[in-house]
Design a protein that fits this description.
Elements lengths: L27 H9 L3 E5 L6 H15 L3 E6 L10 H20 L2 H11 L8 H12 L4 E6 L6 H14 L10 E6 L25 E5 L6 H15 L5 H11 L3 H14 L12 H14 L2 H8 L4 H12 L17 H10 L2 E4 L2 E4 L2 H11 L1 H10 L13 H20 L9 H14 L3 E6 L7 E9 L2 E12 L6 H22 L3 E8 L6 H4 L1 E7 L2 E7 L1
Parallel strand pairs: 1-4, 1-5, 2-3, 3-4, 10-11, 11-13
Antiparallel strand pairs: 6-7, 8-9, 9-10, 12-13
């Protein structure tokens, strides 16, 4: 048997992985009530949040209790079928055959049923017929768990949902007693599944849905409990500050929690000496390594930025605009509730008392870095760190002056290279530059949310002379602030926001950068510096 470790790929294996009890991650009584009441229902949550681990544990619990025959099937193999109904249904029937054989035997009987229901070559009712025959064959009522339902699109998913609905009235003796569908998305809007609504008649194909359940992130105490599994196994301890930091960085996202622990305990060679205590500083190093490794979870997440409906939500967060500020989109429904729901279901954003924000601090770093990875490489060769003083402290005057000149020379070039996020170019290019600055000596915290009209950056720089805590507020002047009166009002608001953020962070320096994006203004009129006092903080303004 291999060593126990933190799981970062696939469902939890109870023998190989450190784990929390999957059945305790949701309201098990609610789930069992839905099953006992013959309901058809949904479970949705972002990728790698523990859905499959939960439903496999549920399957095993139900089969052990003996009241139902619980059958799990993952239908992701049918993804490539797209609109080919025959191919999709055939793939699902084969997956069901394998699972039923593993759980209950019945190889010969299931093979005969599949041959019978596919004999005509028309699969539009084959799944319905198969489930009818299966329910008659099994000695106990069937509880069917269909995983990755939203892997399918177009005609294939319409057919599958319609066949499930067609058998609903006969559930129990002649059709599955209860069905749970699971996936990333809540199947309540066909736009989420790339289905053209004109192909749908008579309402939703799954209007028999009773409930939509989800599973949440880990709580802070869950993280501590999970990490202490490693301590029990190996004797290696975690300093108390680790649990709070991991929760702060991840917001309890399960894959991130496990990935950070795997990185710090198993991939960082020096920490494989189990007498070494894991510290918060080590977690910070592990976080950076995790981001730079571009593991599949983070890569897939960043890849969603290319989707139009994701762009419509995320771009205003990067720019700090409200939708009314966008000069590119004039319609009031630029961002709609469906786009927001989609991004929440993906795990990209979350709702807070302050509005919609990026889901956690690690994603806040991953998303802008993904859009500017080429720039970060460019900055490595283009700019030498002349912003570092002899005593290794950061010279922010040199830093911002160098960036100002770079932006003046290259703003239009880089604006065209940011994969469609041209409006957010000033914020994204500056963050790429600041990442180059921070590498090795500091770290950046990013704050941006939908409708905040701002991008807050907080750079911590460590040197022998002490820690510099530098607050940087980024704002963009557009034609909406064309007159001096409008701009003065806009700048005053920016100064107040900067001072408030500086007070929150205990800043040693505060800067407000104003990017002037008015096309009819010469560069000599855009670039300037001035200093202002606001609420006891000296704030330097950089016009660019």
């Amino acid at each position: 048997m291999g060593r126990k470790h933190f799981n970062t790929a696939g469902p939890v294996n109870m023998e190989e992985h450190y784990k929390l009890n999957p059945l305790e991650r949701w309201d098990l009584k609610e789930v069992m009530d839905l099953i006992n009441d013959k309901k058809y229902f949904l479970l949705h949550a972002p990728r790698q949040s523990g859905k499959t681990s939960c439903i496999l544990a549920l399957r095993d619990k139900i089969n052990a209790e003996g009241n139902y025959n619980a059958i799990y099937v993952n239908i992701e193999s049918a993804r490539g079928a797209k609109d080919n109904i025959n191919e999709a249904i055939h793939s699902i029937l084969i997956a069901l055959k394998i699972e039923i054989k593993l759980l209950f035997g019945l190889k010969k009987e299931i093979k005969e049923i599949i041959n019978e229901v596919t004999e005509s070559g028309n699969f539009k009712n084959a799944l319905n017929e198969f489930l009818y025959e299966l329910s008659e064959l099994m000695e106990k009522p069937v509880f069917l768990l269909i995983d990755e339902i939203d892997a399918l699109h177009g005609d294939a998913i319409i057919s599958i949902l319609s066949q499930l609905r067609a058998g609903y009235a006969n559930r129990g003796e002649y059709f599955p007693w209860s069905i749970m569908l699971t996936g990333v998305l809540d199947i309540k809007d066909y736009r989420l599944l790339n289905i053209d609504p004109k192909h749908i008649t008579g309402g939703s194909c799954f209007n028999i849905k009773s409930e939509s359940l989800t599973i949440g992130n880990f709580l802070r105490e869950d993280i501590e409990q999970l990490y202490l599994e490693h301590t029990k196994e190996t004797g290696q301890v975690f300093e108390d500050a680790v649990f709070d930091l991991v929760y702060d960085l991840t917001d309890g996202q399960p894959w991130l929690v496990n990935a950070l622990a795997f990185e710090v305990c198993f991939k960082m060679e020096e920490n494989q000496d189990r007498s070494i205590a894991i510290s918060a500083e080590m977690i910070e190093v592990a976080k950076e390594k995790l981001i730079l490794s571009r593991q599949t979870h983070l890569d897939q997440l960043a890849d969603k930025l290319k989707q139009e409906r994701v762009y419509r939500v995320i771009n205003p967060m990067f720019t700090g605009y409200d939708t009314e500020d966008s000069e590119k989109i004039k319609t009031e429904d630029f961002i709609n509730d469906e786009d927001i729901t989609y991004c929440i279901d993906l795990g990209l954003i979350k709702k807070t008392t302050e509005g919609l924000v990026i889901a956690n601090k690690i994603y806040k770093e991953v998303l802008p870095r993904e859009l500017t990875s080429v720039m970060q490489t460019h900055f490595l060769s283009y700019m030498k760190p002349k912003w570092v003083n002899e005593d290794q402290s950061l010279n922010t005057d040199k830093l911002f002056s160098m960036f100002s000149q770079f932006w003046r020379e290259n703003s239009e070039i880089w604006s065209r290279k940011i994969k469609g996020y041209k409006e957010a170019a000033p914020q994204l290019v500056f963050q790429a530059f600041l990442q180059r600055v921070a590498n090795g000596h500091g770290r950046i915290d990013r704050e941006y949310g939908l409708g905040t009209k701002r991008t807050d950056l907080y750079l911590k720089w460590n040197s022998p002379t002490g820690e510099q805590r530098i607050v940087i507020e980024l704002k963009v002047r557009t034609n909406r602030q064309k007159t001096d009166v409008a701009f003065d009002k806009y700048k005053t608001k920016g100064l107040k926001q900067t001072a408030k953020y500086a007070d929150k962070c205990g800043a040693t320096e505060s800067h407000l950068i104003l990017f002037d994006r008015r096309e009819d203004i010469d560069w000599k009129d855009k670039i300037y510096t001035e200093s202002n006092d606001e609420n006891g903080y000296k704030i330097k303004i950089w016009g660019m």
